[in-house]
Amino acid sequence: MKKQENKKEKEESKLKGYPGLKKLVPYYKKYLGLFILTLVLMIISAVVGFLNPIFSAQALANLSEAKFTPAIYFAIGLIIVRITISIINYYHNYCYVKMDTKVVFDIKTALIRAITAVQMSKNDQTNNGVYIERLHEDSSKCSDVLLDIMWVALDLISNIAFFIYIAFLDIWFFLMLLVYVVVLWFFDNKKEQVWYTQRKQFRSKRELATGAYNEQVRGLRDLKSLNIRNATIEDAGDKFQEAQDINQKSRVTRRKFVVVRDILATIFEVGFFLAGVFFIKNGWILLSEFLVIYMYHGNIRNLSVHFAAIKQYAIEGELAAQRVFEIIDEYPKETFGDKTINVTNGNIEFKNVDFSYTKGVPVLNNLSLKFEANKTTAIVGKSGSGKSTILSLLNKLYPINSGEICIDGTNIDDLSEECLRDNIGVVTQSPYIFNRTIRENLLFINKNATEEELISALKRAHIYDFVQTLEKGIDSKVGENGVMLSGGQKQRLAIARILLKNSPIIVLDEATSALDNESQQLIVNAIDDLKKDHTIIIVAHRLSTILDSDCIMVLDKGQVIDQGTHKELYKRCKPYKELYKNEETTDQLTKVLQESNALPNELKESL
Description:
Strand order of the largest sheet: 6-7-8-3-9-10
Distance between the termini: 63 Å
Number of helices: 22
Shape: elongated
Radius of gyration: 35 Å
Number of strands: 10
Mean pLDDT: 79
Low-confidence stretches: 1-5, 7-11, 592-607
Largest sheet: 6 strands, mixed
Helix content: 55-70%
């Protein structure tokens, strides 16, 4: 129980001072002129709006006393006031929307920059629904909160002005309304505190559901082929239902507050009317004055609603802002230096590097190794030996625990992001291909590339002949993550992108591990074309693709246990020989299975 109370106090303390909303100020300050104009138009609208209940009340009062001419004048004035308010509100809305569009764009841009800069270690632990929800929902809510509050504030200012006007008509009715508003304000304030806690829980659960639905869409092919479509639908549905349960609980809680509030309102309504009868009967107030007060006392009663609405919108905006700025300000980001070097050689050295994904579970232990410039170096080893980790650390996707990684003698921690990653081209086992045309995928890498350069890159990557067979050629779309391409075609398109990037260092992370022999050979040919101009590092699952590498490093438990050419390692390195023989057996088995429906007895026995 005490734990729950402490948690509740902690949640409520996050609202104090609205720190999230304060962080939005610089985004609005950037468009100060539009903000001031919007604010001025809102104030003018509120001032003119104050005349609305007064003119209406005066028209009614004069009509009740049979003063028809003044009543008509006030009625005409009322029409003019309302038309004026509509015109002012139109321009107010125009200015706000213009400002809001710019602010939303800036917030989304800041958020996507933060998301793409988050350390991979944090990324690995974060549900992608967190990013999607906050990028689409929360960033928009951050700007919407101002408009929501402004519209309520317009009514609030007008009603406060009329409230003061009632004080001049009759101080006792003014005091009655004041007590009523204060009571409701405390009541609504409590309601919003409860609502905030439940709303935050709902948002967190909805992020998980969004992530689950997103995975279903992105992994649609695997869902079908694995026949887990119904299982994943059920899983996502469970997560969505958990979110909806909290949302339903929140709605029920708010409804309970509304019911109690309505009972209070009814009691007050009867009491207010009886007080009016009593005051009129004793001559303490004129009938016309009471009619004016009674006609607009609902507006005064709604002062509490307006205050509560402003607080609700502020809480909603604060919650959205906290979630947005949690990523922008609190999620650990990649850090880079500001040094720029011209990588002319491409010598790479790891010096006593320690690294672990999880604290206390080392992956690399005091690793020291060198990759020579303009040479092809392959890294082989069993799964989990640290092969791909070396490439990730070189590209600084993860910060090392200790040690140093240098390119041409310069620590990569001193290099700027652009310098480091422009000088390293990476092709992974499953490269991401954008849902654009082939041309657009290439131009992402080099927007100034000429038609000749695009075609040259496709030819050198041995994919140009395939592109020519497409109906629209280089302007053909390839689908979500290149779904319309085969595995080998995706790999070769990724190599074409790297060729356009023209990085002196090229890294291939198991780029042929899942390909057929024909696709593998085409990619090997593409790699061979790169050798004379680049430092190439290959993490290889298939040793047959790296037999002619200048150097092969054998990794085991985060350490280089041997290195040399294929012939040298085959003679002296037992782990390497075992890896190679295992691959030979696999290739033989594959060949037999392709040529015959039945395995020979000899092979059966050997297996």
